[in-house]
């Protein structure tokens, strides 16, 4: 599921067409009918993943920059680069944060019977899909 999500596919069925554009996830998977936002507040997990990745890249950039230029790090350049990192990384990583969150959440919170039934009604072929 994580591999599917990293490649921007549906974590449930692997469908490639789950984004309406680069950043905007569709409401449902067009193939298996999986409703991506499973409950109110669902995307808080994606937000946490996105901020964790941004913080990690920030720390690697800051510590790496200091280590490379020690003992006289260019503080102004490091400030500008790390501010840029904190502005760009959360935007660029946004779609992947949602996909990774869906895979993680789906791995421990399986679809309930009601969700499976509703998804099967929305599925492209109208037939119930195998749970996975
Ligand atoms: Zn799907």
Quote the average pLDDT.
93
Bound molecules: zinc ion
Q: Please, how many helices? A: 4
Order of H and E elements: HHHH
Distance between the termini: 9 Å
User: Which term fits the overall shape?
Assistant: elongated
Largest sheet: none
pLDDT under 50 segments (min length 5)?
none
Beta-strand percentage range:
under 5%
Please give the number of β-strands. Answer: 0
Number of domains: 2
Q: What value does the Rg take, in angstroms?
A: 19 Å
**Helix percentage:** 55-70%
The SS-based structural class is mainly alpha
Describe the protein:
The protein has 132 residues and is mainly α. The chain has 2 domains: 55 residues, no CATH class; 69 residues, no CATH class. The chain is built from 4 helices and no strands. The chain is elongated. The termini are close together. The mean pLDDT is 93. Bound molecules: zinc ion. Zinc ion (ZN) binds next to loops.
At a glance:
The chain is mostly helical and 132 residues long. The chain is 57% helix and 0% strand. The protein folds into two domains: 1-34 and 112-132, no CATH class; 42-110, no CATH class.
């Amino acid at each position: 599921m994580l591999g599917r999500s990293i490649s921007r596919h549906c974590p449930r069925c692997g469908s490639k067409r789950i984004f309406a554009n680069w950043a905007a996830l569709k409401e449902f998977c067009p193939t298996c009918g999986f409703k991506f936002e499973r409950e109110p507040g669902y995307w808080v997990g994606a937000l946490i993943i996105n901020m964790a990745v941004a913080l990690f890249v920030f720390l690697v950039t800051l510590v790496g920059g200091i280590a490379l230029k020690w003992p006289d790090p260019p503080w102004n350049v490091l400030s500008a680069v790390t501010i840029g990192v904190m502005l760009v990384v959360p935007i660029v990583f946004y779609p992947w944060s949602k996909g990774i969150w869906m895979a993680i959440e789906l791995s421990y919170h399986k679809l309930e019977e009601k969700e499976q039934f509703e998804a099967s009604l929305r599925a492209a072929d109208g037939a119930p899909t195998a749970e996975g």
